[in-house]
User: What shape does this take?
Amino acid sequence: MQATVQLGKNGITDGFIETLKNAFKKHDSVKVSLLKSATRDRKEAEETAKNLCKALGKHYTSNILGFTIFLKKWRKIPRLKK
Assistant: This one.
């Protein structure tokens, strides 16, 4: 099961990060849908995904499909490709 959260024109705020952390208490993955008011640029979507992982901590990774960011929480820190 995964939770779904929408990211709008306000962008990444402290309240949005708290919403994600609460969603990760019950789910191991969260789907973040980027609304048109947030961004319609692929580079900005990738930068948003990096900023979300940075704000959440090092146990989180992201995957991007279109304008949807899939966030996953790991028990151990994942080994990233160089």
Notes: The two ends are 30 Å apart (CA to CA). The chain has two helices and four strands. The chain has one domain: 3-73.
